[in-house]
Design goal:
The protein starts with a strand and ends with a helix. Helix 3 links the parallel strand 3 and strand 4. The strands form two sheets. Strands 1, 2, 3, 4, 5, 6, 7 and 8 form an eight-stranded mixed beta sheet that branches. It has a two-stranded antiparallel sheet with strand order 9-10. The chain is α/β, with parallel strands linked by helices.
């Protein structure tokens, strides 16, 4: 499965050389489209850590992802804010790291000119808001009024909140057995870890009783066993 990195600001195509020159993470419609073309219809995974960016560029990326023929999975590994939030929702399946954040808000912009110009800009922003309300409401099953209230509040969501509100499908690593530490900082091993340690100790005991086939072969040391144990615990 091909991975596509979506790190940094969502920008127009003709800004990419500037951001690259400044060594700033960014992605544009063209940079994403090129990777989609290279994927040639195979399933892809998006790795997203973005504060959002330019609406037009985000819309173009969202559309390209919706049109992509393969399955699209989005993994939010840092943050998916503003435009990056609805880019993520273009995926068929959205997962989020338990330490990640998502943020949705109303569209914003700068207006100048006479009163008609300002009113025109206000109308454009309202129309954008309604587009995002429709998208979020369709994805989450919430009412448009509920979504609009969340957007007005610049709502931040951790993984649990995002899942509870229907923005994501899965919390990454949720089904992995946790390592439990007590109040004094001591490690408490869960049943799965205890079982792995017992299997390792049994294997080591069996190896000690077997004759060495090669006289130059060195037996396992306790240090090696501890290294094996540390690897086992985090598998």
């Amino acid at each position: 499965m091909k991975k596509i990195q979506m790190k940094g600001v969502v920008i127009p195509n003709d800004y990419k050389d500037v951001f690259d020159w400044m060594n700033k993470d960014s992605f544009s419609p063209l940079s994403i489209q090129n990777q989609l073309d290279d994927a040639d219809g195979e399933d892809i995974t998006l790795e997203i850590n973005s504060p959002g960016g330019y609406v037009d560029a985000g819309s173009e990326i969202y559309t390209a992802l919706k049109e992509y023929p393969g399955k699209v999975t989005a993994n939010i590994v840092g943050k998916a804010c503003s435009a990056a939030s609805w880019i993520a929702l273009a995926a068929d399946h959205v997962a989020m790291s338990p330490t990640a954040q998502m943020m949705i808000h109303r569209a914003s912009g700068i207006a100048q000119g006479n009163v008609d110009d300002v009113n025109s800009q206000a109308n454009a922003l309202n129309e954008l808001d309604q587009s995002f309300v429709d998208l979020y409401a369709k994805r989450t099953g919430k009412t448009k009024d509920e979504i609009y209230d969340m957007m007005k509040s610049n709502t931040w969501m951790n993984a649990k909140t995002a899942k509870a509100n229907g923005f994501i499908d899965e919390i990454m690593f949720e089904n992995e057995a946790p390592t439990v530490v007590n109040a004094t900082g001591g490690l408490i091993l869960n049943d799965q870890m205890i079982s792995k340690i017992k299997n390792l100790l049994h294997s080591e005991s069996s190896d000690d009783t077997k004759p060495t086939k090669n006289k130059n072969e060195k037996p396992k040391t306790k240090g090696q066993s501890k290294k094996d144990l540390s690897l086992l615990l985090w598998e």
